[in-house]
Amino acid sequence: MKIAVLPGDGIGPEITAQAVRVLQTLSRDGLHIELETALVGGAAFDASGDPLPAATIAVCESADAILFGAVGGPQYDTLPRAQRPEQGLLRLRKHFDLFANLRPAIVYPELAHASTLRAEVVAGLDLLILRELTGDIYFGQPRGIRINEAGEREGFDTMRYSESEIRRIAHTAFQAARKRAGRVCSVDKANVLETTQLWRDVVTEVHQEYTDVALTHMYVDNAAMQLIRNPKQFDVIVTGNMFGDILSDEASMLTGSIGMLPSASLNARGFGLYEPIHGSAPDIAGKELANPLATILSTAMLLRYSLDQAGAADRIEAAVRQVLAKGLRTADIAQAGEATVGTRAMGDAVIAALG
Ligand code: IPM
Ligand code: MG
Q1: In the chain, fewer beta carbons within 10 Å around the N or the C end?
Q2: What is the dihedral of CA 271, 276, 279, 283, to 10 degrees?
Q3: Distance 133 CA to ligand 1 centre (A)
């Protein structure tokens, strides 16, 4: 089994280094995995002028799964869009048709107090945000900045979803709900946007094949509010690319920190890219401050979904629970006055807890 490791920019290299150490520990225990590192994002642009060089695509194609860190940094923000680090990630998602983005938000009992919401609102939360990842306004054409008839600049993007794109993510949502609490909430803006009216219609049609699953619909503005008001009402939230981007950052704060949320981006054959949902955090890069747990938990998802190694995934998730129970905290999940550990020390603790 081979994993392509793409550390990327900012804190990406620090956090993936800890996940790689976890994988190496599991290899010593008999899990046969080969790792190959490749450049992506700003690091790849600096080396080759392209945020997703052909050599990196080749490494990913030869692998069974991709472990991804983070991309982006202020020094790249003025580059032409095609050369920006984020394109490395967006092109990878498109190239491998990674349409199903699973973003679970779990509140660990020890961290219920780390959330900015009252502990009783978030304690016990177990929510799955399923974000469609290869369509919507992220990829719709035409798009651009042009001079309009009045002679002023005008920006435009196209929100677009085909029926088949909606259908396949709806199937993923209902199948995921069957393995969970059996409830899907589909989030749209069908009161205003045609694209999401079609979304609602198609999700409702697909639901006919899953009558054992409960389906509700919610407008995205209400969903943003309900996530803060009463997040435990949700089991699976399925939504489009842009709404999912926004709602998953919001949901991360229920768990105490964006540094805790892993993700899996899967295609129809189970090949996947695994990454923390947080970004490259250039302000804390290289300072040993980043929380590696979202990346370590992404590695557990990788083992579970792409390599069929549920036992190894369970071991990692149990180790993370154990270090949290022991009181280890990086700065993002510490309460005032609590002692904190750095990125590598958190990795050490997880490795020790693997047993
Ligand atoms: C995410 C990120 C990306 C996105 C960026 C880095 C392109 O915010 O994975 O949520 O918008 O999808
Ligand atoms: Mg995002």
Answers
A1: C
A2: -140
A3: 10
- pLDDT tens per residue across span 23-77: 999 998 888 999 999 999 999 999 999 999 999 999 999 999 999 999 999 999 9
Strand 2-8, strand 65-70: pairing: parallel
Question: How far does residue 26's CA lie from ligand 1's centre (Å)?
Answer: 29
At residue 100, what is the residue type? A
Q: Which residue in 221, 283, 308, 314 is the catalytic one?
A: 221
Pocket test for ligand 1, best of 245, 250, 253, 278 (most atoms within 8 A of CB): 245
* Residue-wise pLDDT tens digits, 145-177: 999 999 999 999 999 999 999 999 999 999 999
114 confidence band (pLDDT: 50, 70, 90): confident
Protein residue with least CA distance to atom 10, ligand 1 = 245
Nearest alpha-carbon partner for 231 in 59, 104, 341:
104
Shared domain check, 267 and 210: no
Are the C-beta atoms of residues 39 and 9 closer than 8 Å to each other? Answer: no
Number of domains in the chain: 2
Instruction: State yes or no: is 245 an active-site residue.
Output: yes
CA 328 / ligand 1 centre spacing (Å): 28
Active site residue 221: yes
Residues 11 and 82 in one domain: yes
Domain boundary among 221, 254, 287: 254
As a whole number of angstroms, the distance between CA 224 and CA 226 comes to 6
Provide mean pLDDT across the span 92-120.
93
Write the CATH number for 144.
Answer: 3.40.718.10
Query: Does the pTM exceed 0.70?
Result: yes
Kindly name the residue from 108, 189, 210, 332 that is annotated as catalytic: 189
Distances (CA, A) of 143 to 132, 154, 300: 20, 10, 37
138 with 226, same domain: the answer is yes
